[in-house]
Write a sequence for this structure.
């Protein structure tokens, strides 16, 4: 599984969890940005 | 099952009102306008739907009169004369309590479900009813509200927001590349200007250096400079000399104050002097005489001792109890053992006494001999004593010399200091003279002009340097970009990362689109199934089919002739039937777990045939599901609650 696929997979898990446990916009954005940040960090280090 | 509704200060009624409702039946609340019907159904609506978070539903809540609108002064359900009202609803072991405050604040102990507002309210100003009566055929909102599609939509908009952010980063990269290009050009131009202006500056400096001042002035300047250099050199030497003298004084002071050597020698001399006095108190001849005399005495004592030893031997050999002859006096007699022992003891004592005396004489002789030996050292001690005396004299002489030298050097110091002060004064004067000469030179207008021109060129160079620093900084800033708080120093790499991220986000958006579609379609299919069953159950001959189109979620109406009909073209009575059908279907499809269906005269106002069909159906589902179905109707009488 490529790095991109991994991140897509993890975000989908987060989305499904967010939908299940009454969706909280702010915590979702935070988590999502964190994932993208991790991805960028992985690319530059 | 029973539902007990307690209303306190709700609507126009002040104080507590308790109402009982039974499940499994349809309850009819009748009464004239303002009799209190609507406050009952509004209380149910609030207790079973609050808290309401969706923006659309907040508007519905305001329209329905259970939430406070932004412009409204008070919360509508609270009695106008009261600050607070309460709704309590007990059913199926659930005890709900809602506290309502005049300012719009609402507190609830057990949260309700906001979907109740449009799924379980069979009323004229419900969202479904408004849609139908105003001819709006799009029911996408209901499938969104009733499914998770809305949640997925929100997530999608958050995800897509990141695309906007990344696009703005892409724009930044473009801008930064442009800045890099522009700044490189600017830098080249500034650097070229700098080289030209620096050349001019050098030229100007040369003109300044080569400037021909007044000859006399230049000559005077050179002479003064020469004098000044010589004076400064001289002063340096004098100061060096003074430093040396002061160092020497310090060293001599140290030497002068060091008396430890003298003290040591003096102490040794004192000891030697005492010894000499002691040794000289005797004479060698006297001591030798005394030795001879003592030796004579010692010899006599030794003879005596031998004599007693001989006698002792005789007594030791004599036979006991026999006649004996004295070995000395030759007298005869009898000798007893006691007599012999006493004689031997007597001679032993005598021998011992002589031995002690002999030892004393020997010691005496040795002592005298040692003394004579020691007296032989007298010349050596005397010589050492003499040498030490000389040494002390030398040291004291050296100390005196140091004192004299110090005095001599100290005498020189004031003179040298005076000379230094005088030289310094002289140098100061010469420097002043030189300053005046230079000032005189500076006054030359031509020279002044050259210097001003040079300063102006210097300022220009300074400005160019400042601009170059700024350009350098801007170029440096334009070389990197921040993505999610990470500084990326390579714009190409940053662009690649952004493209990758866009790719990820687009994949997610596609996934979300699928999910949204899946949930909408799922909700719509469920809804359609329910409507279809209801039409079949009610045996309506007006419509063949009513359903939501799965492509655009438009409401489709097919009449008994299998002809599609536009919603706008159906009659008011038909619209009321469609609205009731959809409302009951929505309740059965989406919120059957809450056992309440609240309605106003929407069904009671239908044509008698339809009214009968619907009422029978409501009675049937009330019984089958053990639901509370509560309808209101306007009459000319007081409030009356009956089960039908």
């Amino acid at each position: 599984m490529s790095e991109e696929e991994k991140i897509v997979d993890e975000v989908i898990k987060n989305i499904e969890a967010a939908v299940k446990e009454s969706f909280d916009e702010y915590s979702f954005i935070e988590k999502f940005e964190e994932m993208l940040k991790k991805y960028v960090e992985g690319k530059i280090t | 099952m029973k539902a007990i509704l307690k209303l306190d200060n709700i609507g126009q009624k002040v104080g507590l009102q308790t109402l009982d409702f039974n499940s499994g039946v349809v309850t009819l609340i009748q009464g004239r306008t303002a009799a209190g019907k609507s406050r009952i159904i509004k209380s149910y609506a609030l207790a079973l739907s609050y808290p309401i978070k969706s923006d659309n539903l907040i508007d519905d809540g305001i329209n329905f009169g259970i939430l406070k609108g932004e412009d409204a002064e008070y919360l509508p359900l609270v009695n106008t004369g009261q600050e607070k009202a309460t709704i309590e609803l007990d059913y199926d072991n659930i005890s709900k309590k809602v506290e309502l405050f005049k300012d719009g604040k609402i507190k609830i102990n057990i949260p309700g479900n906001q979907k109740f507002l449009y799924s379980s309210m069979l009323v004229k100003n419900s969202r479904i009813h408004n849609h139908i009566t105003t001819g709006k055929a799009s029911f996408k909102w209901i499938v969104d509200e009733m499914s998770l599609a809305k949640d997925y939509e929100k997530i999608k908009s958050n995800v897509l927001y990141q695309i906007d952010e990344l696009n703005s980063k892409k724009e930044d990269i473009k801008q930064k590349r442009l800045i890099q290009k522009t700044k490189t050009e600017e830098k080249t131009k500034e650097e070229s200007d700098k080289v030209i202006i620096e050349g001019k500056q050098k030229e100007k400096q040369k003109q300044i250096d080569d400037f021909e001042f007044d000859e006399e002035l230049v000559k005077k300047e050179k002479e003064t400079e020469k004098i000044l250099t010589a004076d400064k050199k001289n002063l340096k030497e004098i100061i060096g000399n003074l430093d040396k003298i002061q160092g020497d004084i310090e060293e001599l002071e140290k030497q002068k104050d060091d008396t430890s050597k003298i003290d040591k020698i003096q102490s040794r001399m004192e000891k030697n002097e005492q010894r000499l006095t002691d040794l000289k108190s005797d004479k060698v001849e006297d001591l030798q005489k005394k030795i001879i005399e003592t030796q004579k005495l010692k010899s006599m004592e030794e003879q005596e001792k031998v004599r007693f030893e001989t006698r002792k031997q005789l007594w030791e050999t004599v036979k006991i109890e026999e006649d004996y002859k004295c070995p000395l006096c030759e007298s005869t007699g009898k000798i007893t053992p006691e007599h012999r022992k006493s004689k031997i003891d007597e001679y032993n004592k005598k021998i011992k006494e002589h031995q002690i005396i002999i030892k004393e004489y020997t010691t005496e002789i040795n002592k005298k001999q040692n003394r004579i030996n020691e007296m032989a050292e007298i010349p050596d001690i005397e010589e050492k004593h003499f040498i030490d005396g000389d040494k002390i004299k030398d040291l004291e002489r050296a100390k005196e010399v140091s004192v004299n030298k110090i005095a001599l050097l100290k005498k020189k110091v004031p003179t040298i200091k005076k000379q230094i002060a005088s030289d310094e004064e002289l140098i100061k004067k010469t420097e002043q003279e030189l300053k005046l000469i230079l000032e005189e030179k500076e006054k030359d207008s031509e020279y002044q002009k050259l210097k001003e021109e040079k300063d102006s060129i210097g300022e220009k160079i300074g400005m160019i340097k400042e601009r170059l620093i700024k350009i350098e900084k801007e170029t440096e800033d334009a070389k990197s970009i921040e993505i999610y708080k990470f500084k990326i120093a390579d714009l190409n790499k940053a662009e690649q990362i952004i493209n990758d991220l866009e790719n990820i986000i687009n994949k997610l958006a596609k996934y979300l689109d699928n999910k949204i579609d899946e949930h909408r379609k799922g909700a719509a299919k469920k809804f359609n199934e329910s409507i279809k069953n209801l039409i079949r159950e009610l045996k309506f001959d007006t419509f063949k089919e009513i359903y939501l189109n799965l492509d655009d979620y438009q409401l489709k109406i097919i009449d008994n002739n299998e002809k599609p009909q536009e919603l706008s073209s159906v009659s008011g009575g038909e619209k009321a039937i469609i609205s009731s059908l959809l409302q009951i279907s929505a309740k059965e499809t989406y919120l059957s777990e809450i056992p309440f269906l609240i309605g106003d005269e929407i069904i009671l106002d239908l044509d008698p045939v339809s009214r009968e069909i619907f009422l029978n159906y409501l009675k049937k589902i009330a019984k089958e599901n053990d639901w509370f179905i509560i309808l209101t109707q306007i009459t000319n009488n007081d409030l009356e609650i009956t089960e039908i």
Q: What stands out?
A: The mean pLDDT of chain B is 91. The two ends of chain B are 16 Å apart (CA to CA). The interface with chain A takes residues 148, 151-152, 154-155, 158-159, 161-162, 483-486, 488, 493, 497, 500-501, 503-504, 507-508, 511-512, 515 of chain B (CB under 8 Å). The first helix of chain B runs from residue 37 to 49.
